[in-house]
TrEMBL record:
<dbReference type="InterPro" id="IPR028978">
    <property type="entry name" value="Chorismate_lyase_/UTRA_dom_sf"/>
</dbReference>
<protein>
    <submittedName>
        <fullName>GntR family transcriptional regulator</fullName>
    </submittedName>
</protein>
<dbReference type="Pfam" id="PF00392">
    <property type="entry name" value="GntR"/>
</dbReference>
<keyword id="KW-0238">DNA-binding</keyword>
<dbReference type="InterPro" id="IPR011663">
    <property type="entry name" value="UTRA"/>
</dbReference>
<dbReference type="InterPro" id="IPR036390">
    <property type="entry name" value="WH_DNA-bd_sf"/>
</dbReference>
<dbReference type="InterPro" id="IPR036388">
    <property type="entry name" value="WH-like_DNA-bd_sf"/>
</dbReference>
<keyword id="KW-0804">Transcription</keyword>
<dbReference type="Pfam" id="PF07702">
    <property type="entry name" value="UTRA"/>
</dbReference>
<dbReference type="GO" id="GO:0045892">
    <property type="term" value="P:negative regulation of DNA-templated transcription"/>
</dbReference>
<dbReference type="InterPro" id="IPR000524">
    <property type="entry name" value="Tscrpt_reg_HTH_GntR"/>
</dbReference>
<feature type="domain" description="HTH gntR-type">
    <location>
        <begin position="22"/>
        <end position="90"/>
    </location>
</feature>
<keyword id="KW-0805">Transcription regulation</keyword>
<dbReference type="GO" id="GO:0003700">
    <property type="term" value="F:DNA-binding transcription factor activity"/>
</dbReference>
<dbReference type="GO" id="GO:0003677">
    <property type="term" value="F:DNA binding"/>
</dbReference>
<dbReference type="InterPro" id="IPR050679">
    <property type="entry name" value="Bact_HTH_transcr_reg"/>
</dbReference>
Length: 258
């Protein structure tokens, strides 16, 4: 609760050691950082005005403390909205895991906001990725992915109708539906590039135009090599890190100078 947070911050500010020569904004920043690290991601902070009034300090001091937290990536600040604890996730590139399972493995609640589920003709990139003729229709699924209710990615998946004749069957997990139909993907390939949010991206991700994006294109295949899925996911670059494990080639280190 905001009242409890303000009470804890106020008590800590009042118990300043004489040897603590940090400016007030820095002490406030450190105390808020401790609260945010201990609380759930996406937690809303009290407004600048309320923090200043309840703590008996100036709004300039509060704003500077929040600016410090924003620079450290602990707080997301939106014009016209209260600051909130940043949601930051790590995604490993070495495993073929669905979004929902990935979040559950990290103790977070997955969710989505559906934008469309329809049968359509493929875009040229989709037809090429899925080895389809331009006139062969696909199931296209477009949704905003949520982590603990916070939007972090826009996903557009394309699947041949042979494997997903009714896109309305998909709930939380596309992979679960494909597995039920006996066509689970067994391997995949990904391409990652950087981008900037358009106005639509920013609106869907509760961000701002021009904010960083990580754009991932993924092709997944059946055991016999046929492509079963082509997905473009546009991740909020302020919320996602991608991790991969590096190993020496053939188990040994090689020198470029050899």
């Amino acid at each position: 609760m905001a009242e409890d947070l303000i009470a804890r911050i106020g008590a800590a500010l009042a118990e300043v050691s004489p040897s603590d020569r940090r400016p007030i904004y820095r002490r406030l920043s450190d105390l808020l950082a401790r609260e945010l690290r201990q609380g759930p991601a996406g937690t809303r902070l009290p407004s600048e005005r309320r923090l200043a009034r309840e703590l008996g300090i100036s709004r300039v001091t509060v704003r500077r403390a929040l600016d410090e937290l924003s620079a450290e990536g602990l707080v997301l600040r939106r014009r016209g909205a209260r600051s909130a604890a940043a949601v930051r996730l790590e995604k490993r590139l070495s495993s073929l895991t669905g979004f929902s399972d990935e979040l559950r493995n990290r103790g977070m609640r997955p969710g989505q906001r559906w934008l469309s589920r329809q049968v359509v003709l493929p875009a040229p990139s989709e037809a090429l990725a899925l080895d389809l003729a331009p006139a062969e229709k696909i199931a296209r699924l477009e949704r905003v992915r949520l982590a603990d209710g916070h939007p972090i990615a826009i996903e557009r998946a394309a699947v041949p109708l042979a494997y997903l004749p009714d896109p309305g069957l998909v709930g939380d997990s596309l992979y679960a539906i494909l597995a039920e139909g006996g066509t689970p993907p067994v391997r995949g390939a990904q391409r990652i590039r950087a981008g900037l949010m358009s106005g639509r991206d920013a609106e869907l991700l509760d961000s701002r135009p021009g904010a960083p994006l990580l754009i991932v294109e993924r092709r997944c295949f059946l055991a016999d090599g046929r492509p079963v899925e082509f997905t473009e996911t546009r991740y909020d670059g302020e919320s996602y890190d991608f991790l991969t494990e590096l190993q020496p080639q053939n188990g040994t280190y090689q020198s470029e100078m050899a």
